[in-house]
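Example record used in the benchmark description.
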Amino acid sequence: MGRVEDEIRDMINFQFGSVPRFAQEIGLPAQTVYSALRKGLSGASVATVMPIVAKLGLDPVWIVKNQLRERDEDESKNFTYVPLYGSIAAGSPIEMIEVDDHHPIPNAVFNAYPRAFLLEVNGESMNRVIPNGSYVLVDPCVDVDRDMEPYAVCVNGYDATIKRVRKLENGFELVPDSIDPTFRPKIYDYGVEGTDEITIIGRVVWYCIPFDWSF
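Model output (structure tokens):
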């Protein structure tokens, strides 16, 4: 559907033949009506809008609803929906549970990371930089090329967590970034028998707060 002003212009042309003839009927200069239809009724004065609405028999609420619809449609063009795969621990690692959902991110972010996906944070071990309950955007990768930046990693193949990651000579160090001092760095040294294997899921490049997030 087009702009509400375009629909009103069509009504005017159909019922009165032209904007100037309609303007004469309601006692307004044709240029005033043209300007209101071109720039938008929301920016016109009540003295201009009300005669137009009354003569056409329109409900002002209809105009407001349609203008809100247009605004929502315009805003939606600025976002792209990306997969939200599920919860991910930012504390003690928990099993990642996939969910069938999508969430919008700004187009500028999507264009920078077109392969990225969202994961929901569940835990307080990164709460200095990533709030519990937020959605982190993960750019897939298989190695750590930026020491001490946040990464999503799998621990022992199936558990997932977010930590700052330091790559070691023979393993990794996972470092929390929390106001809670009970979260401590943990070293995974592959030289030690029985050490869980760390698999890099991707680097955390951005995060957002869902609309129902609360303190």
